[in-house]
Design goal:
The chain is built from three helices and five strands, in the order H-H-E-E-H-E-E-E. The protein is α/β, with parallel strands linked by helices and 107 residues long.
């Protein structure tokens, strides 16, 4: 139980460090970052557009480079209709995939 408590404290300290960043530094962070207890990281960006140009992947790229092998995947959700691999461990996915039943995509 002590180990979990220590991990929670470390997580809270990391969140505190992120919150204390200047607004200019925070703008280069993904919208959501999830880190497992073993250090593996997944990150998400949410875009209100039908296209995801390369500049919109900047925050995921920076986190991937900083995290190295612990970065499992990054996903940019968008209003388009296609799921595709953007580059190494970075995907673009329609946001409606979160609530549409499997097999009913794009309808």
């Amino acid at each position: 139980m002590r180990e979990r408590s220590d991990q929670r404290k470390e997580g809270l300290l990391a969140l505190n460090r992120l919150a204390s960043l200047a607004p200019a530094a925070r703008e280069h962070l993904p919208d959501l970052v999830i880190e497992r207890g073993d250090g593996a990281v997944v990150a998400f960006e949410v875009k209100a557009a039908a296209r995801v140009p390369g500049d919109d992947m900047r925050a995921l790229r920076k986190l991937r480079e900083a995290s190295g092998e612990t970065f499992i995947a990054g996903v940019a959700f968008y209003t388009g209709t296609r799921t595709y691999r953007f580059e190494d461990r970075a995907w673009v996915m329609p946001i409606d995939r979160l609530w549409l039943p499997i097999g009913r995509e794009g309808r």
